[in-house]
Amino acid sequence: MWRKASAAVLLALAVGYFYSDRPEQVLQYIGLPVFRAPPGDGLEHAISAAWEALITLPSRQWSKVAVGVNACVDVVVSGVGLLQALAVDPGAGRDHEVLHSKEDLREAFIHFMERGAAAERFFSNEEVFQRIARAAAEYPGAKLYVGGNAALIGQKLATYPELTILLCGPVGPKLHELLDEQIHVPPESLQEMDEFHLILEYKAGERWGSSQAPQANRFIFSHDVSNGGMSSLETFVASLEEFQPELVVLSGLHMMEGQGRELWDGRLKQAVVALADIPKDIPIHLELASMTDKDFMNSIMQEQVMPIVSSIGLNEQELLFLSQAGGGPHAALPAWRGIPDVGQVSDILLWILDRHGRVEPSSESELTRIHFHTLAYHVLATVDGYWGNQAGAVMAGARVASSQACGLQVVDPSKVELKAPLEFYSSHSEPRERLSLDPTEPVAVWRRGNVTFHFTPVLVCKHPLRTVGLGDAISAEGLVYSELKIQQPF
Questions:
Q1: Does the keyword Electron transport apply (predicted)?
Q2: Which of 118, 137, 314, 483 is most buried by its number of CB atoms within 10 A?
Q3: 3-state class of 75 per DSSP?
Q4: Cα(417)–Cα(432) distance, rounded to whole angstroms?
Q5: Residues of the chain with pLDDT > 70: what percent?
Q6: Catalytic site residue 472?
Q7: What are phi and psi of 224, to 5 degrees?
Q8: 72-78 vs 143-147, strand pairing mode
Q9: Which helix (H) or strand (E) holds 285?
């Protein structure tokens, strides 16, 4: 009690420091007490202190979570260093939906490095991929980690000892060794060989030839047949009856894209049939990842998966591509210019929930929640009446992005910087609301119809140690702090 009172007193001293010379309009917040940070420590300190004071777990928490179905071993190396070791020269960048050669790899890597954007591609030539994989594993400083969205989400959830985690996916001996002991893997998911994914990382400002990265990020590629066909999906669904989870987390759909339309179309339909066996009272969170085929994305959105999941997690690339594929708001925008505009992001999130979610009670769709994350900020959009503790959830997701990127357990204000806007609009078009963010109460809240938006900044790590898996950690943390409200029968 004494510590809380002391913290409140110290935090209260910051009011004049931050706002004595800038009398801005401050948002109204939902159910958050007021905290103030000590003077002289900056906005980063104010935000991190407020997170620690305001983030609380919901009253009703998950106890059993099932996660599937993509899992692998990530080989993490310097992208520029590996390509130089492969005797590849720098040049012009160009995107490729599927990689067939070292030249395709070089062009795609440069294309995304110049934009500081994350991307993931399938490498079609198994023999060439294996040669590159061997070179990557032997490259000085190469590191092996748990990989695959499902396995990474499971690893993050396993940091909460009160949670029991089931993981289904292609788990080979090395991955099994790397997984947290708290994660249960069904015997049917174990296989003799691991699937390897190559993660080419680059640092902010890193140069290769005439190309320079505006921010740190990574390019992922693989020749992964097991995950590409979601071979563990039926095992995953069959395991749920015995495990009895309270939440299901699904990922790996993007891996099917590289298999070709005929294969992914049939497999996607089989996946929907399998997912239909999950009881309706168990929420399903779908974690999206980088995709390039608009028909594939439309199948996920309109005909297949999105109507049967309760929640989705995605980043700025996936959000814009989703709108481009479905003819949504700002679909003519070829790419984000710098930090994505909050109003444009809000427009697309609302369109997804309007078009594909359960905004109307009569809708048969289950989708009521979207967790959007980008480097500088996060937004949680939820249909009213279905989810609780979303202010805590969005802050928790941002906090783990800040700490994990720096390789720390807690946020160090001296190692991070604020890049999010402190003023923005709720929409890119009229009517729109002008919003201001108070760093000592770092959650801005607005409503559009019966959809509520929660915004919080991210404190961006100045010198990130590892960018892989941040999106998975963000979504996992947001889910831990989310509460599904019990629906009353009509």
A1: no
A2: 314
A3: strand
A4: 28
A5: 91
A6: yes
A7: -120, 100
A8: antiparallel
A9: strand 284-287
What does the alpha-carbon distance between residue 476 and residue 359 come to, in Å, rounded to a whole number? 24
Give the distance, in angstroms, between the CA of residue 96 and the centroid of all CA atoms in the same chain.
23
Burial track 100-132 (b if 16+ CB lie within 10 A, e otherwise): eebebbbbbbbbbbbbbbbbbbbbbbeebbeeb
Contact 207, 187 (CB under 8 A): no
Could you give the 3-state DSSP secondary structure of residue 257?
A: helix
176 CB contacts (<8 Å, ≥6 apart)? 185, 190
Give yes or no for a contact between 353 and 311, defined as CB atoms under 8 angstroms apart: no
Rounded to a whole number of angstroms, the distance between the first and last alpha carbons of the chain is: 43
Residue that is written with structure tokens 């110290």 in the block = 10
Enclosing domain of residue 400: 54-73+147-194+224-484
Q: Is residue 308, in this structure, part of any structural domain at all?
A: yes
User: Domain count of the chain?
Assistant: 1
Domain annotation covers residue 104: no
pLDDT tens profile 2-13: 444 444 433 433
SS3 at position 282: coil
**Is the pTM higher than 0.70?**
yes
